[in-house]
Amino acid sequence: MNRKELEERTRKFAVNVIRFAGGFSSSSASRVVSTQLLKSGTSIGANYREANRGVSRRDFAHRIGIAEKEASETCYWLEICSETGLGAKENCRALLEEANELLAIFTSVGRSIRSNDHRSKQGSGVTEPVLHGYAANDLGDEQSDFVVPEALSFDE
Q1: Phi and psi (nearest 5°) for 130?
Q2: Cα distance between residue 90 and residue 48, in whole Å
Q3: Confidence at residue 118, expressed as pLDDT on a 0 to 100 scale
Q4: Helices 89-121 and 28-52, axial angle in degrees (round to 10)
Q5: In whole angstroms, what is the distance from residue 98 CA to residue 90 CA?
Q6: What phi, psi does 123 have (nearest 5°)?
Q7: Is the separation of the CB atoms in 133 and 114 below 8 Å?
Q8: Model confidence over 105-148: pLDDT tens digits?
């Protein structure tokens, strides 16, 4: 899957989340869950798109991390929907399956970034503190040189 395909996949997921949440009742509990689900479910694709337009490897990694966290939160809210009977059961199941797949993809990309950053720091004499997987002075604007899992090759 290339970058454009994953952008399209996350956009379609957001559209499906919007449609799913639009079918909720107007109870106060439904409104709370709907709002949280809509925020996290639509944020995945927005952050992935921003990651692809980042100016540095660090910016890319940061946005991928946010997409991963939003995918995890979306899984949580869909599990709440499933357990409370909010929304159509089959639609909820399909969305939860896709959210888990997106979470796995972004987790894999994030791990790859962190692994390659760690390997590039070994043997380089870098001794400064590491914050969130990055050395404190790693603010460069160089383009990313990490390895993306083969299934997520961004080459077109």
Answers
A1: -105, 125
A2: 27
A3: 64
A4: 40
A5: 12
A6: 75, 0
A7: yes
A8: 999 999 998 887 766 666 554 433 333 333 333 333 333 333 34
pTM higher than 0.70 for the full model?
A: yes
Q: Which CATH superfamily is domain 3-135 in?
A: 23S rRNA-intervening sequence (1.20.1440.60)
The rounded distance, in Å, linking the Cα atoms of 58 and 145 is 11
Tokens representing residue 148 in the block: 């993306």
The closest alpha carbon to 33, from 85, 71, 72, belongs to 85
For residue 131, which phi and psi values (nearest 5 degrees)? Answer: -120, 125
Span 36-82, pLDDT tens digits: 999 999 999 999 999 999 889 999 999 999 999 999 999 999 999 99
Asked if the model's pLDDT at residue 86 lies above 50, the reply is yes
Q: Give the single-character DSSP code of 54.
A: -
Distance CA 139, CA 59 (A): 9
Q: How many helices (H) and strands (E) does the chain have?
A: 4, 2
